[in-house]
Specification:
30% helix
Length: 292
């Protein structure tokens, strides 16, 4: 199996000590987000690769060489400021960490997500073009591929709609973004694609692809027996997420995985770095099943 760490929270940024404890002990337990008493137990011996998804890879850098599994990084880097991403480190610090990740795992396994894109009076298309160029320039030689997506209508987005204040993107807007981003990526020897978007921007030079394709999974593991991910409607291969919703302290205003900041604070207090679960501990009436 391929582990996803994590689409539900930023384990790398906030819970790396717990993750390393789990790796060293050889297994991790994951509570089902839709059936709280059901727990999947995953042995790291059954893990063929790890896909790290994070906005701040710095905490895990000292441990990467000790994790003896094929590793793939998707690092989200956006141009927004503290009004949208209140608890992120400085962008320069994130860029430096991306460079270090690339030096360790290789640029073919280090991806950047410029995600999500929205525009308003402050974050205009021209602003995005300028910042995308700056980002690609800073990461020239360290990454080969960028994935973008556009703002979705999540519960948290609706809650923060007055802060985000997004404008609807027109066909001309998509064209300008598509042509500009494609030209910038080419200038810095990179490719760019969308992440399962209705507006895939192929006509402007974007490439077609999945975030984790069968081809990429084969490059990571040397295996081809990965199933299509049923949990999503894209063509990515199946992954197993070990995170938990409402546990990320970045508090980004567009996030899909957080929708209750009070719940986040409550869950953080229940985190035990020595527990097999990210949040809380195994309870007497929990049902544990081995995940293969």
């Amino acid at each position: 199996m391929i582990l996803m760490i994590s689409g539900r929270t930023d384990i790398v940024a906030f819970y790396t000590p717990w993750l390393i404890n789990r790796y060293q002990e050889g297994y991790v337990d994951v509570r089902n987000p839709f059936n709280k008493k059901m727990i999947s137990r995953i042995n790291f011996n059954d893990v063929e690769a790890i896909m790290f998804c994070t906005k701040n890879p710095k905490p895990i850098l000292p441990y990467l060489k000790d994790i003896k599994k094929p590793k793939l990084f998707y690092i989200t880097l956006t141009p927004y400021l503290k009004d949208i991403e209140p608890n992120l480190p400085a962008k320069k610090e994130i860029i430096n960490s991306i460079r270090e990740v690339s030096n360790i795992v290789g640029k073919e396994f280090t991806y950047v997500r410029y995600d999500p894109i929205f525009i308003n009076d402050k974050y205009t298309i021209e602003y995005h073009i300028k910042m995308f160029d700056r980002m690609c320039k800073e990461l020239h030689g360290y990454i080969k591929h960028v994935i973008i997506s556009f703002l979705d209508d999540y519960k948290n987005v609706r809650k923060n709609i007055k802060v985000i204040n997004p404008k609807s993107l027109t066909k001309e807007d998509y064209k300008k973004i598509g042509e500009s981003f494609s030209n910038i990526a080419t200038k810095y020897n990179m490719t760019v694609q969308t992440c399962y978007e209705e507006e895939n921007l192929l006509e402007y030079g974007f490439i077609k692809g999945e975030c984790l394709s069968r081809e990429l999974a084969w490059k990571l593991t040397g295996k081809t027996n990965f199933k299509k991910w049923k949990a999503r409607h894209c063509d990515c291969v199946e992954m197993v997420d070990i995170g938990a919703y409402n546990t990320c302290s970045h508090f980004c205003k567009y996030c899909y995985a957080n929708y209750d900041e009070k719940e986040v604070e409550k869950n953080k207090k229940m985190h035990n770095p020595a527990s097999s679960l990210l949040i809380g501990n195994i309870e007497k009436d929990d049902i544990i099943k081995q995940r293969k």
